[in-house]
Amino acid sequence: MTHVTTLLLFALGFQTAPAPLADPVPPTVSFIFDRPQVKTSHYEIILGEDGKGIYRAVTKDGVHSERAITVSPANLELVWAEEKASDGFRKVTCETHLKNMAQTGKKTLRWTGASDTGNCTYNYSDDKDIQKLTSIFQGIAMTMETGQRLAYLHRFDRLGLDAEITSLGSSVKSGWAIELQNIEPELRKIIADVSLMDRVRSKAETLLTNAK
């Protein structure tokens, strides 16, 4: 073996191994809501295929909040079935063709993949599947906003808890508030607080029990 060959083999043996490829970013579906006139003027819900997600919100006073959430298998299936059927919300007409519709907030459904994205933006949609997804995401948002109010009232205005808990119960029955497991900590604190009215604690316990 020549001297040159020996040096070549030595160099090849000490070449740096190629860096492993990064794992692809898991796809997500997001719902983004903007309406400057209401207290929670902006929020977004980012949801993965595993049912785990993030709720982020900003009030019109500029207060930011963020919290991890989970979504039940039934609602998760509906969200991702529509994402696939619409090719990442690219093959669906979200906005209604009707004129002079009341403005209820700018809504955006967005799919984000490893190297691609798709979305549609609307005020109101005629599409039944888009309406269903809107109801799911807005129902989650209502639950999260109510959880924040419960935490505030529990700390600063306990007498206001009764009305808020009653209102939440009505919203759950009507389907306006869903996925109550995401405010379980707030409900459990109310249940455990023996200084509160029994009916408040009882309503909180019923809501939490029915949510499971």
Summed up:
Helix content is 42%, strand content 21%.
- Please compute the radius of gyration using only Cα atoms: 24 Å
| Overall number of domains | 1
Order of helices and strands: HEEEEHEEHHHH
Oligomeric assembly: single chain
Which range does the strand content fall in? 15-25%
Structural class: alpha+beta
Element layout with pairings:
Elements: H1 3-13, E1 28-34, E2 40-48, E3 52-59, E4 64-70, H2 73-85, E5 106-112, E6 117-122, H3 128-156, H4 161-174, H5 184-192, H6 198-211
Helix pairs in contact: 2-3, 3-4, 4-6, 5-6
Structural account:
- Strand 5 and strand 6 form a beta hairpin.
- Helix 2 (73-85) runs antiparallel to helix 3, helix 3 packs antiparallel against helix 4 (161-174) and helix 5 runs antiparallel to helix 6 (198-211).
- By secondary structure, the chain is α+β, with helices and mostly antiparallel strands.
- The protein contains six helices and six strands; from the N terminus they run H-E-E-E-E-H-E-E-H-H-H-H.
- It is globular, with a radius of gyration of 24 Å.
- It has one domain (23-211).
- A six-stranded antiparallel sheet has the order 4-3-2-1-5-6, covered by helices on one side.
- Helix content is 42%, strand content 21%.
- It has helices spanning 3-13, 73-85, 128-156, 161-174, 184-192, 198-211; strands spanning 28-34, 40-48, 52-59, 64-70, 106-112, 117-122.
